[in-house]
Structures are given as structure tokens and as C-alpha cells.
Amino acid sequence: MKILMVCLGNICRSPLAHGILQHIADTKNLGWEIDSAGTGDWHVGQCPDRRSIAVAKKYGVDIANQRAQHFTAALFDKYDRIFVMDRQNYADVIRLAKNEEQRAKVSPFLDDDIVPDPYYDDAMFEPVYAMVEERCQELILQLSK
Ligand code: 4NP
């Protein structure tokens, strides 16, 4: 299973989803490959935001070696599933899809909600971590059936 997590900058939310899901999948020896990307290209090549690195480290997940990449249409064919953090990410990714097969790979990370962008609010990194971690545990159960 190859999964791509997508947000805007690829430095706050999607690196957490990427790191947490990879960590759980590795613990269970599932052989999954998780990656992440941003619909914006401002942070390409950078490591995650220091606040995301810190909150992940606190819960035993190391995301410091990740580097931001830009979401491009070429990535549709590299992954089985693509999860987006909010509605704008969804619109931006879907706009690049060339056919129904590519569109069908794209889903909101949360079924009925968005993952709020914590970039401008230090206090949001803990709740975002908790939301993302809870959903990653569900995804492991749903997608490993
Ligand atoms: P992310 O957060 O999409 O969760 O990585 C953001 C990071 C950077 C910016 C916006 C959102 N930015 O505008 O630079």
C-alpha cells in the first residue's frame, strides 16, 4: 500500500500524518510506504515545521528527516491512495487529476471534517496531532483488512 498525505505547505499537517501512519504501519510490519506533499511549493526541500517535529517527538515519532515536496500530477500514479487535510487541498488536488481513476484515489483524510491548519497558532499542534493520530489508527484498521 502506497499512501500520500497532502496539505498546503507540507511542513505542518501532512508531515504528521505521514510520520504517524508510517510509524504505526512499521510497528505492524505492514510494508506500507507513506509519503507527503504540499499543494504549494514555498517550502520544497525544507524539513517539517519545528513545532510539528517537536510534538511528534514527544509521542515517539521522528519526522525530522522528512523534506517537503510539491504535489504534481505525476504523483497520482505513484500512490494507491491520496488523503487531503482540508477542502482547499481537495479542490487543488482534484483539479490536477486527468481521469476518474486518479480522482478515485483522492479522499479527505477525515471523513466529515477538516484538519485545521496550525501554522499560525502554536496551541493547535497538540490537538492536530491527536486528531491525526486517531485517524491514522482507524486507517490502519480499515486499509489492512
Ligand atoms: P501545512 O501548514 O499546510 O499544514 O503545512 C502551512 C504551512 C505553511 C504555510 C501555510 C500552511 N505557508 O503559508 O507558508
From TrEMBL:
Keyword Phosphoprotein listed? The answer is no
Molecular function terms, GO-annotated: protein tyrosine phosphatase activity
Q: Which UniProt keywords apply?
A: Hydrolase, Protein phosphatase
Family indicated by similarity: Belongs to the low molecular weight phosphotyrosine protein phosphatase family.
| Classification via SMART domains | LMWPc (SM00226)
The protein's name in its UniProt record: protein-tyrosine-phosphatase
Active site, per annotation: 7, 13, 117
Claim: Hydrolase is one of the keywords in the record: yes
Sorted alphabetically, which CDD domains does this protein's record hold? LMWPTP (cd16343)
Q: Lineage in the entry?
A: Bacteria, Pseudomonadati, Bacteroidota, Sphingobacteriia, Sphingobacteriales
EC number(s) of the enzyme? 3.1.3.48
Phosphotyrosine protein phosphatase I domain: residues covered: 1-142
